[in-house]
């Protein structure tokens, strides 16, 4: 997408707006599958939580991906997008047994991450195959909020509790058809991931009826020019070789599974916002935009850095700005950042806005959530309408004595 393409999107759909490049999503999917070309059976399950728009799920389905879901609502979105139940895996954390049972009844692959639910589910539904999520006790991830495989994590069943797992499996007669781990996001050190993978292989040896081994995801993507990222090609070569050796020793066909989210959609997304005010203080020049952390929370939540470009004046003189939002609370996107000279009504483009941006958006300050647009084959397609005031009050119920008052 060129700057002119992005400006055209704003002109057509307004600001702020999220735009996703379908060609970039496809390129990332093909890059990941090519990295594991030496493995006979590879399954990519897109992590729905990264970006759950039905049009994106349909795009993944058309590429050949399955879905990794964490709630019954995500499962229903996947089914609504036309994804077959057998191509969906359900990996929740801390949900009720009843939610897991409802999802299992849909024909979706269940992935259980705690002993209590494993025993209850196995006792009631011993004929339903399940996957087990293991906590390998490996610290990995770029931020403590997204590092989920360490010893104090709430995710997964500890590798030290494998004897408990085996006792439950034996007592219930349930079938384990997969083992799974996910150590965290923004993983850069391949060796740490490979070390955790060996723990998963050791776990897999305990189960005779496995159909797949799921290594999660968490690959780091670049957030700025020259930024470091996971070397997918090297990783595919090393893990693929080790997986093939294990599959040969296991003497049964095995599928190597992954569940990438950010890797597939992060770089495909742009968030476009208009500059309301350029405000000079005694020491700072603020560019205040028509958005806030209600639309892009990651910089405030994780300290993530999103490149910001002034696409209205891309060749302008570089100046220093702090880019902030309109929320009545501190909502800083960038401090003292070099950006081409900004004027009021210029359009700023935030990079890496495909993952965990709209999906974490809110109506804080009673602001509307923006529209979403898919850019495909040189054309834009609206895939979610901008919210209106009617959307904001749709489920609200006025006090009885005031119900006759028109809003």
UniProtKB/TrEMBL annotation:
Any one GO BP annotation for this protein: lysine biosynthetic process via diaminopimelate
EC number: 4.1.1.20
Pfam family, one: Orn_Arg_deC_N
Modified residues (N6-(pyridoxal phosphate)lysine): 49
Source organism superkingdom: Bacteria
Protein's UniProt keywords contain NADP: no
Residues reported in the UniProt entry to bind pyridoxal 5'-phosphate: 218, 356
InterPro entries with a match to the protein in the record: Ala_racemase/Decarboxylase_C, DAP_deCOOHase_LysA, De-COase2_N, De-COase2_pyr-phos_BS, Orn/DAP/Arg_de-COase, PLP-binding_barrel
Residues the entry annotates as binding substrate: 298, 302, 329, 356
Keyword field: Amino-acid biosynthesis, Decarboxylase, Lyase, Lysine biosynthesis, Pyridoxal phosphate
One GO MF term: pyridoxal phosphate binding
HAMAP family in UniProt: LysA
Name assigned to this protein: Diaminopimelate decarboxylase
């Amino acid at each position: 997408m060129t700057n002119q393409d992005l400006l055209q999107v704003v002109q057509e759909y307004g600001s702020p707006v999220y735009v996703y490049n379908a060609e970039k999503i496809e390129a990332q999917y093909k890059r990941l599958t090519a990295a594991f070309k030496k493995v006979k059976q590879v399954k990519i399950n897109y992590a729905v939580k990264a970006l759950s728009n039905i049009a994106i799920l349909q795009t993944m389905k058309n590429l050949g991906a399955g879905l990794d879901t964490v709630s019954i609502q995500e499962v229903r979105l996947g089914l609504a997008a036309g994804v077959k139940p057998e191509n969906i895996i359900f990996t929740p954390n801390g949900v009720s047994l009843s939610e897991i049972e409802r999802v299992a009844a849909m024909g979706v692959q269940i992935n259980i991450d705690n002993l209590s639910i494993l025993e209850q589910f196995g006792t009631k539904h011993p004929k339903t195959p399940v996957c087990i999520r293991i906590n390998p006790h490996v610290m990995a991830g770029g931020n403590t909020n997204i590092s989920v495989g360490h010893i104090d994590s709430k995710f997964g069943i500890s590798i030290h509790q494998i004897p408990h797992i085996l006792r439950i499996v034996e007592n219930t007669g349930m079938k384990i058809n997969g083992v799974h781990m996910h150590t965290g996001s923004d993983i850069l050190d391949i060796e740490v991931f490979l070390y955790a993978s060996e723990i998963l292989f050791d776990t897999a040896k305990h189960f005779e009826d496995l159909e797949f081994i799921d290594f999660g995801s968490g690959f780091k993507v670049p957030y700025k020019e020259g930024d470091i990222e996971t070397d997918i090609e090297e990783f595919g070569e090393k893990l693929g070789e080790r997986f093939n050796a294990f599959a040969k020793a296991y003497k049964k066909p095995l599928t190597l599974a992954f569940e990438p989210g950010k890797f597939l959609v992060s770089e495909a997304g742009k968030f476009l916002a208009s500059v309301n005010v350029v405000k000079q203080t005694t020491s700072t020049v603020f560019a205040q935009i028509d958005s806030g952390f209600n639309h892009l929370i990651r910089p405030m939540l994780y300290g993530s850095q999103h490149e910001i470009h002034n696409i209205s004046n891309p060749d302008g003189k570089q100046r220093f700005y702090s880019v902030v939002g309109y929320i009545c609370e501190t909502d800083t996107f960038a401090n003292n950042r070099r950006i081409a000279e900004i004027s009021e009504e210029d359009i700023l483009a935030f990079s890496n806005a495909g993952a965990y941006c709209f999906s974490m958006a809110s109506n804080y300050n009673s602001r509307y959530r923006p529209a979403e647009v898919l850019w495909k084959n040189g054309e834009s397609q609206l895939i979610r309408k901008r919210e209106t005031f009617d959307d904001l009050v749709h489920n609200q119920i006025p006090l009885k004595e005031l119900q006759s008052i028109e809003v």
